């Protein structure tokens, strides 16, 4: 069973690493990339310098880090809280219904899910705009997809709706492995529900939380491309353009393969530094890390 996963990682994660050399070669606009890997002239760190001095670099980096930091602060604890709430539900049938409803959006692609949200945000027929008008939050119909300042809240809310239930599975599994006698002893000692959660549940799943937190920190420069691409419009571009969408536009549509490979390698290097740094800080403060 493990062999399938190993083959997948080797084929899609390690084998493509040979192509990293194209970041240091002049292979932009090349028709035959395989030939460029071996025959294109070396150019050194020129593409890395070009990206850093690009007029869009500051905005793209701020959008990428800012959006992912907000998601780390809001979206990361959401599945943990939800898993704890689910574990406290005594009625098994109601518990299963809630889990099924919250798991379902995960299995819908961002294209379909995003299309539903876009229709709901429509100025003419969208239920969300109508609801906001009736509640008095807005005074006139407005296209939320065209508002740059509304883009980040939109991404955070939709990602929570789509991933909340699925993200809670691992934490629910960790909670179910806790010895029930700990809760019984705490109840006998007079501990209420919140004290049991604070002194038993959270410490018992802290290892799982730390591992996933460190992995989330290392992904601060990684964005959900499908999600951003669905909701990105020319009107909200100043807040929606991140490294992943920038790489797609410049690398694929404009055939600047070497330049965007350098951008991707820059992002991976920063992610590695964040992962190692977060691991060392966690080991020093909490006494545990990824390994």
UniProtKB/TrEMBL annotation:
Could you list the residue ranges that cross the membrane? 65-86, 107-131, 151-176, 197-221, 257-281
Major place of residence? membrane
Query: What name is this protein filed under?
Result: Sugar ABC transporter permease
Is Transmembrane one of the keywords UniProt gives this record? yes
Family as reported in the entry's similarity comment: Belongs to the binding-protein-dependent transport system permease family.
Key word Transmembrane present in the record? yes
What organism does the UniProt record list as the source? Cohnella herbarum
The cross-references to InterPro entries, in alphabetical order and at most eight, read: MetI-like, MetI-like_sf, UgpAE/MalFG_permease
* Domain of life (superkingdom): Bacteria
Q: Where in the cell is it found?
A: Cell membrane
């Amino acid at each position: 069973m493990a062999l399938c996963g190993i083959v997948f990682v080797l084929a899609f994660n390690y084998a493509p690493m040979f192509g990293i050399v194209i970041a240091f070669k002049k292979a932009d606009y090349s028709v035959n990339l395989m030939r460029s890997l071996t025959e294109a002239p070396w150019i050194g760190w020129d593409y890395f310098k070009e990206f850093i001095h690009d007029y869009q670099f500051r905005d793209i980096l701020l959008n990428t880090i800012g959006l992912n930091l907000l998601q780390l602060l809001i979206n990361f604890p959401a599945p943990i809280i939800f898993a704890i709430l689910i574990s406290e539900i005594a009625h098994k049938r109601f518990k299963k219904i809630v889990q099924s409803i919250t798991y379902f959006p995960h299995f819908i692609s961002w294209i379909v899910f995003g299309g539903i949200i876009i229709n709901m945000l429509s100025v003419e027929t969208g239920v969300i705009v109508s609801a906001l008008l009736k509640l008095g939050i807005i005074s006139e119909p407005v296209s939320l997809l065209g508002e740059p300042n509304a883009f980040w809240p939109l991404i955070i809310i939709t990602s929570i709706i789509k991933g909340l239930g699925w993200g809670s599975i691992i934490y629910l599994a960790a909670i179910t492995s806790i010895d029930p006698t700990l809760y019984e002893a705490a109840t006998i000692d007079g501990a209420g529900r919140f004290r049991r959660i604070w002194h038993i549940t959270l410490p018992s799943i802290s290892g799982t939380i730390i591992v996933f937190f460190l992995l989330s920190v290392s992904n601060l420069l990684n964005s959900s491309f499908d999600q951003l691409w669905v909701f990105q419009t020319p009107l909200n571009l100043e807040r929606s353009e991140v490294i992943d969408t920038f790489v797609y536009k410049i690398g694929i549509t404009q055939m600047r393969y070497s330049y965007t490979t350098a951008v991707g390698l820059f992002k991976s290097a920063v992610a590695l530094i964040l992962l190692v740094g977060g691991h060392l800080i966690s080991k020093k403060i909490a006494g545990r890390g990824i390994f």
